[in-house]
Amino acid sequence: MNQTGAHVCDVCLPRYYCVNQDRLDECPTGAYCPGANGYNYSLCPVGTFNNVTMLEAESECQDCDGGTYCASPGLSMPTGDCAAGYYCELGVNTLAPENNNTGTGGRVDSFYT
Q1: How many Å apart are CA 83 and CA 87, to the nearest integer?
Q2: Cβ of 1: how many Cβ atoms within 10 Å?
Q3: How far apart are CA 49 and CA 87, in angstroms?
Q4: CA atoms within 13 A on the CB side of 14
């Protein structure tokens, strides 16, 4: 609420979070804000990133680019390049993807079998 004497609180709008109780703050990079979320914003999940502000939905987080991986939630840029001997096509969450990863990736030798 940004006024005194109000009897009803305002709802925090989509693409914003309301940590300061009297103003709307833009949803930060690496996160999304669905609205009516108050203090909290949600981080983009592993395998994704977001380098712009004011996203509203998880679906707006970008899959990690081919050749790179996104190891933790809330990234504004990919973590780094995939390791030599591995391929990372899209949405990978680990340096050397094998069996327990998100997205599409794996060992280069398994790609050709």
Answers
A1: 8
A2: 12
A3: 19
A4: 6
45: its two tokens: 């999940």
Q: pLDDT by residue (tens digit) across 81-99?
A: 999 999 999 999 999 998 7
Query: Which residues contact residue 14 at a Cβ distance below 8 angstroms, ignoring those fewer than 6 apart?
Result: 33, 34, 35, 56
Task: Tell me the whole-structure pTM to 2 decimals.
Answer: 0.81
Total residue length of the chain: 113
- What digits encode the pLDDT tens for the residues 32-52? 999 766 667 899 999 999 999
Alpha carbon distance 67, 113 (integer Å): 20
Spell out the residues 6+ positions from residue 87 whose beta carbon is closer than 8 angstroms to its own.
Answer: 97, 105, 106, 107, 108, 111
